[in-house]
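Minutes, methods subgroup
Present: GH (chair), OT, SY

1. OT presented the first of two proteins processed in the latest run. Sequence and structure tokens recorded below as shown on screen.
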Amino acid sequence: MKIERLDKYIWKIPKEGNMKVDAIVFTDAESVNDPQFREAMKQLVNVATLPGIVKYALAMPDIHWGYGFPIGGVAAFDVREGVISPGGVGFDINCGVRLMKTDLTYEDVKDRIRPLVEAIYEFVPAGVGSTGDIVLGKKGLRKVLVEGAEWAVKAGYGLEEDLERIEDGGKIHPADPSHVSEEAFERGNDELGTLGAGNHFVEVQMVQEIYDEELAEFFGLEIGTITVMIHSGSRGFGHQVATDYIRLMRDKLKEHNKNLPDKQLINAPFEHPLGQAYYSAMNCAANYAFANREILGHLVRKAFWKVFGRDTRVDLIYDVAHNIAKVEEYEVDGKRRKLVVHRKGATRSLGPGSEKVPSIYREVGQPVIIPGDMGTASYLLVGTKKAEEKAFGSTAHGAGRVLGRSAALKKLDYREVLDELAEKNIVVMSKSKKTLVEEAPEVYKDVDRVVQIVHEIGISRRVARMIPLGVVKG
């Protein structure tokens, strides 16, 4: 595999063989020389062979191996000639993150971190197979799949003003529940308002550093402000939607998919009935995830109220998706074209003035949230016009794994992980010892480096850095 350096943090694999476009990666030299990185790059090269792909197959600095597409991958396909692929979205459809700010400071909470984490642990169902108190039945769940976060607010699980602080208002169309299987309905029936396991978390944070005073003031943040970050997705519902359509595309589009370099790149032409059915079902799962995070945000508010009183403000800054495919317009070869933009482990990063950015943020650009792991920092950034020009309006979504879950379990010890976090004065509560080891800080890339790269390239701009005080895991 030939890799050319175009700039300090920009690398290219030139088009050759069956590749229809070049592959471009935003990363540093250290990552390029890592053998694990090469495996993910092979996946990006495979993506570059898919029908209708435009400009280039792109990867963010948090790139690592995934199902079909690498995680950290971005690819855009012409709506008429291109495809839609479940592997380019991921099994946890609309896995995403929300950032909330409080009117509390570190001085207010420093002696009450443990009771606050315990309250969050009490209010937020977490862990593998966790279920919540919301059981709707099929008729009620159909409304969630259409209305998304709006349903949650109507049902009393959030605030009306939250909706203008969620990507796409927390409701994406088309979303027709008739394209969703009975198995997906069954799996999603009792998982609304649950965190799940794996890398999902609720984290109490403190703003430690400000990079842009004017933007930080705009967001209501200053050094010492207490924030909360929530990372979760569409739970078993989204996983089932992905599973269903991977199987359907294999069974019904054998001829179309016969020459794939990797069977995990299974796809459908976007305009084919099966492509449209998956798109609609995927949007249903995205709406489920938006509703889920809205409910989780409400449960976190209740935990803060329990510890600090009902007058405590816990306000949403923004909620973003980072596993999704969307129809958007970008310039390709001097023309505006309608594209199906796949972001798998990537965050939308639209600049000032974009009509897709909520009006309250349009003058500064879309808020971008990049979490680290439970032992390191997380970031608030804003989107840029450069991201729209260079990266289909995209940026990184997190630190990115460097160690698989099974490898982490072999290499790391539960007690040592806890002790390491305790040394940093981070209070952790987890449903599973196994999850805590699998998600230890050592298994992730340096999030500071990832953010430095996207900031220097100019596809998102740093506003504030937050450090963890307390974490709830599944």
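2. SY then presented the second protein from the same run.
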Amino acid sequence: MVGYLLPHPPVLIPEIGRGEEKKCQATLDALEKIADEIAEYKPEVIVIISPHAPVFSDAFFLNDKPEIGGSLARWGVYGIEFRFKNNLEIVQDIAKMCSQEGLTVGFVSDKIQKRYGVSRELDHGALVPLYFITKKYKDFELIHTSYCMLDDIKLYKYGMILRRAIEKHAKKGLIIASGDLSHKLSYDGPYGFAKEGPEFDRLLVELLQSSNTRALYDIDPVLSEKAAECGFRSIKVLLGAFEGYSIESKVYSYEGPFGVGYCVAAFYQKEQTSSSLFEEIVKKREERLKRIRENEDEYIRLARESLEYYVRHRRYLDYIPDYVTERMLKERAGVFVSIKKDGNLRGCIGTIFPTQENIAKEIIRNAVAAGFHDPRFEEVTEDELDSLVYDVDILSPPEKVNSISELDPKKYGVIVRKGARQGLLLPDLEGVDTVEEQLKIACRKAGIDYESGDFEIERFTVERHK
């Protein structure tokens, strides 16, 4: 098995870049070398994992069109089209194996495509790598898929399934993880700068240069999120295809001329190994969650146990645990409960003012609401409970703000009001660094026009338990 990490900025294609692509000469040279390698390897099936194909929260998109195609017309380039035969037998086996392993595959029918505008045409995450590959080699079937927003274990398992399905049909396969690295490398780039951008790229490239692919799973998910990358999950799926083997990784190039990191790297299968990276990932996750559980305070523990009780019994916790403090029983306050799963928000519901007789009962109610009544998410299920992490915010009474100079997104949460419309944003949220960003998000949640400036502002502090 061979795999590659390939970037996908359309500017790399000369017909689109019109000279700008020359600023990425190291990337272009590396892509040409990779195309030569692929032509020599002669794969019968290429799987491309694209972050710009349809991405679902809990299902892996899999393209089931008999023929998969796309063009450069959206970039004003006409006459360059791509058409590839899909291997539907392998696609069907991937879906079947996923079902057996508890994973979900999402297909996009013609009806859904028309109704919701979700395309099964090749996206630029697939088109750009394929543009360079097909200049040297075209004799392959294509499987077009994406990652999803599930945890590392499921991403890795999906990669294992991709390989098993290809091998079942005795095909010579190759997997491409399409993805760019950080989109926040420079202030003059299209996405701005975050210090985590260069830090993430440096770390990932160093690990690939040293073939230390196991350590990729030790990278802090907060770091990758703040770096604003789009290729890390593609890599994690790709690595699953090498389960049971050691890997030699090789970086052909890395550069970021437009404020976005472009890395070209190869992954080569070496000898079989007795150690399982899959088991190692599972163990690390269990150890991390165990540490979190051991360090829970009374507020977090009550939120967790309240939701767990409701999931299992379909009724609210009908007793107050003995670890609940006197303060939680005597004081009243607004409370927000946030739930995360593998670093991603899974639900967040709260009350600005107290609605229950004490903080403890406020937590009980809002923990259940966060797991069951946040309209952005499906209801929490029992098999998820062991992987959930909780935050509890105790709110101070709101106070009116006369000037935005009285705001600080790290210290104060905000409430915006206009008539019956109201929007709230908690303080010290990842990615919310300025007062303007904070107010814009709060206004958007309330359906208030931020630019009009016609709204009232209140601020509050929180006592955060996490």
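Chair's summary of item 2: The chain has a mean pLDDT of 95.
Next meeting: continue with the remaining queue.
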